[in-house]
């Protein structure tokens, strides 16, 4: 285009910013920003908002905040991009701080704002702040939104307020897969394993097909509730009934299921035959060795953990505890060298 002597205008630059955002290409995004600055386009508020969002999607909150702070007037898109960026990168305190700043500036929140803020509240298990956000959602007339209700169920579940999560779930007329998954996980985290299974069965009766997240939750439930046979059936149905590919998380849950049930031989064989077993898989087996006091298996399992993650102390500490419990300290010193 430029070789033909045609200079890019605002529309072209907006398209370039969007392309860099979609690709997550920070280097190219910064080059576009330089061109914008040279041409004086970066003072345009709509372009500046796009840049904030681009930097956020490329993982550069420093760049996003720099552009945001230089804007003459921050619009809703720029506020949402900044809040979302902090929430996505785990800086939940800053996400809530920007949200409060936004309110003080008189900018009204929308659905996108609330989704990011609820994520931040959930991460911090900030129940009272979450309740305040919930009240704002109701006052804005957005309380019928399925996505926001799902986020609220997740919030209340993580914050230990099971009654609030149940109340929202029971009142929902339109429940999607995320709704069901959130409620299954909530009951599981509260030790209500039987109810988790009931919700899973009801979900299927309602015609909602489970996904990989659903099965991770169900395998977790079966493992911690001691439902070995149900867990094995659940694992088998992933491929047999739903033609889904097994994920690393599925395998890790089954390792835990086998280990907790005392089937340590099968668990060890499964880990050893995984295409690319990681330290987490061996740590899961090591945890089962602790439960059943299998010190010999624990030693060779800890050695595999050390090979895959030499800097990790978790395996060494767990092995030490296993030997301390078994009062058998012979040969364990080699894992610490």
From TrEMBL:
PPR repeats lie at residues 75-109, 176-210. It holds the Pfam family PPR. The keyword Repeat applies. GO terms for molecular function: RNA binding. Keywords: Repeat. GO terms for biological process: RNA modification. PANTHER family: DYW DOMAIN-CONTAINING PROTEIN, PENTATRICOPEPTIDE REPEAT-CONTAINING PROTEIN. This is Pentacotripeptide-repeat region of PRORP domain-containing protein.
């Amino acid at each position: 285009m430029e070789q033909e002597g045609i200079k890019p205008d605002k529309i072209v630059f907006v398209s370039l910013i969007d392309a860099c955002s979609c690709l997550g290409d920070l280097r190219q995004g910064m080059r576009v920003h330089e061109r914008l600055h040279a041409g004086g386009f970066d003072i345009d508020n709509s372009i500046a908002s796009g840049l904030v969002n681009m930097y956020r999607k490329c993982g550069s909150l420093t760049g996003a905040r720099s552009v945001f702070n230089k804007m003459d007037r921050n619009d809703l898109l720029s506020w949402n991009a900044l809040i979302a960026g902090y929430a996505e990168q785990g800086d939940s305190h800053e996400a809530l701080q920007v949200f409060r700043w936004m309110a003080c500036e008189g900018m009204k929140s929308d659905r996108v704002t609330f989704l990011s803020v609820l994520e931040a509240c959930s991460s911090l298990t900030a129940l009272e702040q979450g309740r305040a956000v919930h009240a704002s959602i109701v006052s804005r007339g957005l309380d019928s939104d399925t996505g926001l209700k799902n986020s609220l169920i997740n919030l209340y579940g993580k914050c230990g307020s099971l009654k609030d999560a149940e109340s929202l779930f029971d009142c929902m007329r339109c429940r999607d897969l995320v709704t069901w998954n959130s409620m299954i996980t909530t009951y599981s985290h509260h030790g209500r394993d039987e109810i988790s299974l009931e919700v899973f069965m009801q979900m299927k009766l309602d015609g909602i097909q489970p996904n990989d997240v659903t099965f991770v939750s169900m395998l977790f439930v079966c493992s911690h509730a001691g439902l070995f046979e149900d867990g094995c059936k659940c694992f088998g149905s992933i491929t047999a009934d739903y033609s889904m590919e097994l994920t690393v998380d599925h395998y890790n849950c089954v390792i835990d299921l086998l280990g907790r049930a005392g089937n340590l031989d099968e668990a060890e064989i499964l880990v050893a035959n995984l295409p690319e077993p990681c330290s987490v898989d061996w740590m899961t087996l090591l945890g089962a060795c602790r439960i059943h006091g299998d010190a010999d298996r624990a030693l060779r399992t800890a050695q595999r953990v050390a090979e895959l993650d030499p800097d990790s102390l978790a395996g060494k500490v767990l092995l030490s505890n296993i030997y301390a419990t078994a009062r058998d300290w012979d040969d364990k010193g080699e894992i610490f060298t």
